[in-house]
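Input.
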Amino acid sequence: MGNRWNRRSFLKGTGATALGMTVASLTPPALSAENDTPKPAALAPTPPMGWNSWYCFRRNVTQEDVRAAADVMVSSGMRDAGYNYVNIDGSWQGKRDANGVLQPNERFPDIKGLSDYIHARGLKFGMYSGPGPFTCGGDPASYGHEEQDAETFASWGVDFLKYDLCTFRKIMLHDAPNDPAKQFELMKQAYARMHRALLKTGRPIVYSLCQYGIDYVWEWGAEVGGNLWRTSHDIRPDYITMAEVGFSQAGLSKYAGPGRWNDPDMLQVGNGGMSPNGEMTQMSLWAILAAPLLASTDLTKMTEPTRRILMNREVIAVNQDPLGKQGDRVWQKGPVELWAKPLSGGDLAVGLFNRLTWNTPIRFELTDLGWTGPAKARDLWTHQEIGIIRDSHSAWVPSWGVVLLRLSKT
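Output.
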């Protein structure tokens, strides 16, 4: 299986050689045949929800920032609405000690204390590493230290690990030049290796694969132990990029389910690059996609409109529905789209998406959805009952906006 998509960033100034280490010294150890295909852990029965430090703090994140985020998740009601992971996304690493144990940097003087603080507030703690020798930002990652790092993470009480491909790409290219099939196998082995290390600790740790959808990860992510896997390039806080990422998820629904989720990257709600309509579009689409709901805004500066979007419990219920089905596109007619997600009890979430720069009516037939008989409809953003739909329904949808309905049997 070849490399269907090549991130140019891996070839420009990242990786072991760019950071003063020769690739030749980094050939990964062989895996035993019986360990090549570990079973994924029985974790994440619904898509993970929480907060991640990256898009608000990037490489400047501190222990105090993470504590503050945990505090706001409790005081604002986010925790009670389902957001329970507090995840550091890189830039916490310092150096390895004489025994090879990875130490945090000066901005994180007490990782175990931070973890205890988060757990004491009824939340869970997430960390970041990668299969290469360094992270994307040049900090030490887990290459050659998988079991050691897994034990360290477990001793700190980590509940979630994001594992970012980054500099392992250099190893793939070095060890299998001009051989995309072997590169693919090396990548799978690297992710499986950390999964086995996590299992060996005995601590249940949700395992998040971050490799940007290379080589159709949705087809094999669960095989190497992933509970969720990135399906796209990094998102940005603007409608165009968000829509490109979100709507490109069409056709992936069959690969998702309890314990195995497609991940189109984090929520950009509150980051200032989208209108409220655009933010509601992302929240609605991610709910229909059964995508992880990971906020990544500075929660200490969260406005009331941001809070209302992130904490719309009716929309969250669509995402967290126990049936565990990812929704999909029903039809696309130019810049307007109809999406639907099966829900428990026979209900159906229906999203009417307008990608035009002006308001427009969108009409659908119940038969488009495979729905027989009349349907009781509720608008999940206005929190209003629409009434009974007998054959078809039409709604005005704002520019770059959405109408999200829940249909139930009458």
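The chain is about 25% helix and 20% strand.
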